[in-house]
């Protein structure tokens, strides 16, 4: 592109370094274009710095401020030299794009869109010396000579740009290792870390929240325990009722089976007696028929003989 998308101020991040104290630096991004520009901040040391926010969208011809906080360090680096670097990526986005729409693909170099990248170095500055206080009439009073000395030191620090400029020019020559670090930084997003100075207050708030949550959980557990006991009692009663119902059912079944057996026995004996009686009646009928046959044969014989005799007599005596 003919012009740069963003104008970054300052170009170098300066942090006042003190052991076990954090330091902050404000950065302003200016949109030089007439389009909406999205930006993303990355660093080679994401656990050491806190960037808030690390992504955003800048309106046309507008500015955007964000803060970079260096967390408290336990040990000072050798010779106050820092190799940490920041990378600010920017690209044009359509109108209406929100910060929630920004993803890692928004700043990926796929060749179809222009991604502008700018690198920022980090410089550590020693804190100014504290003023010397002298006792005067029982009270502490600032020594004017020390105040003059402080002003001279401050003015001396401000008036030695050549050495710092030489150091900055030397740092501008990036070695292969620094290039590797920046490439690694492209895959690591800067993440906000906890505020060390406010750790106690946060701890107290967390403890209060934990205590409150514990009490709520305890009350809920007691309620659940009482409901569980009621459910156990109900289950016990239902189990007893089911057992009693099973016993009653088995008893009724046994009684019914015994009654059916008795009925079957009665029916069986009645059937046998009925069959026996029927056989006896049949035998008696058979005997009666035989007797009738035996009693009717002589009469028939007599009649036949009489008829024959009459016929013979008629034939003899016509």
From TrEMBL:
Residues 214-255 form a coiled coil. InterPro entries: MSP_dom (IPR000535), VAP (IPR016763). The keyword Transcription does not apply. The keyword Membrane applies. Keywords: Coiled coil, Membrane, Transmembrane, Transmembrane helix. The chain crosses the membrane at residues 296-316. One of its GO terms (biological process) is endoplasmic reticulum-plasma membrane tethering. Residues 5-125 form the MSP domain. One of its GO terms (cellular component) is endoplasmic reticulum membrane. Pfam families: Motile_Sperm. Belongs to the VAMP-associated protein (VAP) (TC 9.B.17) family. This is MSP domain-containing protein. It comes from Carya illinoinensis (Pecan). The lineage of its organism: Eukaryota, Viridiplantae, Streptophyta, Embryophyta, Tracheophyta.
